Fold these 2 entries.
Entry 1:
Amino acid sequence: MEGFKAYLNNLKTKLMSLCDYSKDEEYLLVMYSLNLTREQVFLKEIISKKERQKVNGKLIKRLRGEPLNKIFGKQNFCGFEFKVNKWVLAPRVETELLVEKVINEIDCRQEKVRILDICTGTGCIGLSIKKLRPNKIKTLVLSDTFPNALVVAKENKRLLGIEENVEIIKSNMFERLKSQDKFDIITCNPPYITESEYEDLPVGVKNYDPKISLFGGKDGLDYYKILAKKSKDFLAKNGKIFMEIGSKQREAVEKLFKEQGYITTCYKDYSGCDRIVVGSISEVKT
Ligand SMILES: C[S@@+](CC[C@H](N)C(=O)[O-])C[C@H]1O[C@@H](n2cnc3c(N)ncnc32)[C@H](O)[C@@H]1O
């Protein structure tokens, strides 16, 4: 038996040697390893040898650079728990802003909306919107080109108890979507890391998130070029596209969309970085 507070402090010191240490990670490591609630961890006074062995097994992985979400196979996003694995990008906190902007848009509309979440990965964007506004979604389509990611999206749909009005489609961007299908809202967090950025990514990202979910071509803009050209074929009248961007991509992405006749707005994330671009176009056909 060992005093738990001393053990926790020791754990914290070890974890702080990681360049991607995040505040209070030691609590999460204990919570998930021992299957405890946050309250149980706060109230814990001693830790047994068996418990220490369980935590230490996970600690070794974490100290090798594996992020907690990949070790435990789950990540909280918008208040919901999403399953993650090596085939999908673990949902990031910045992306919650995209969901927030879409929710504001939905709340301004009288009618139910049709949503397409392209490059869906875990499905975190589309499924969170559906959970947060269940009665305002007419249809939700989740699409990704990577079959292994679609398995995860499907599993998350099931785990979140979403049964109706959601279609999951394997498609290389818009290729397999029917152009007669129109959406009021398209959401997309595409791969946007540039060639040079990819080389310098932290171990926790480069070794544990799949390249297909990160790499956006030499200048990081490959997917935005497709989105700018094609999304208007799939947008209903007054439709809007909500995209996450890299912090240095605002100018280039807005230019691509303006060239195609879109009006664009950009929002900064809570760290003050350009993060969400919204494109709207009024002349599209219904
Ligand atoms: C940055 S991740 C975003 C995942 C999730 N939407 C999120 O925000 O956490 C990009 C996703 O795009 C998918 N993807 C990559 N190339 C694609 C393509 N050509 N067509 C459709 N999806 C693609 C990847 O498999 C990955 O799931």
Entry 2:
Amino acid sequence: MKNIKDYTIEELKQEMIQIGEKPFRAEQIYSWLYKEKVKDFNEMTNLSLELREKLKENYNICNFKIIKKQESKDGTKKYLFDVLDSNAIETVLMSYHHGYSLCVSSQIGCKMGCKFCASTGINFIRNLSSGEIVEQLIAVEQDENIKISNIVFMGIGEPLDNYENVIKAIRIINNPKGLNIGARHISISTSGLVPKIDKLANENIPCTLSISLHATTNEKRSSMMPINNTYPIEELINSCKEYIKKTNRRISFEYALAKDSNDNLEDAKRLAKLLKGMLCHVNLIPINPIEKGIYTKSTNENIIKFRDYLNEKGIVATIRRELGSDIDAACGQLRRKNLDRRKKCC
Ligand code: SF4
């Protein structure tokens, strides 16, 4: 059966016409789903009984179940959700002085195989539907009784590898009749799928684009991120420049610092050269070590030197505050542990 949260408001209007109803019913249903956050068609009390029955015959309302919830000392909360087909996904809620930010997953598993990521080694299973992406937000808002102000596509999965569903989810999240979160408060993070970055530049969605760069030579980047073999650094940077030219939006480059790997002054010099003159910001991330991972966190001294060098060269760089390091906060860790446990049980 179709998940009613999978539709943009325009699509839902078309659905209503197809089941013999007036298009304005879509707006009423949207209000029940995204303002009232009801879990059952029976709760949509301004719809006739006949229409509610029709909706039940044709659609379901996807409501995730919480399998596990971990809370960090710093207030970060990590959810493992049952997506109702025996799979599980992770979602992380972070609390900042400016509000709540939610890190959502876009796929079950990931094909990209980045070496520093806890999702590596977990097979790609499937894309999440747009409704399943949106449901992460609704489920957390309901569980915590809060309003989320920022969304980052930085959980499990490569969002641009699930392009259509991610864009549709953003349209639902962004719609004032949907979850009403401004596009500027939505951020997509990609490992660097160049053709999709080019496509995104032509969508009229002013969300923030983050590029997981993490290295300054093709040799190093390919060893950390196999996607670099397909779209090497030069191609990626050219695509970013084109994106900035078309959208006039600043790109955020993510750079996870790993000790003795990509954190020395030569790396900082190459990075400054690569990004010279670009409308961008560099987010330096002390790498989050994962179980059986090959990378360890850079020293504070190196991280600060790296940042200061970039700033001296006119590249705005900041160090990201580490959140949730005591609760398996690297993406994929909680799900991986859950799978390991299940494997051990079998
Ligand atoms: S870092 Fe992101 S793109 Fe890379 S393997 Fe992990 S989930 Fe996939």
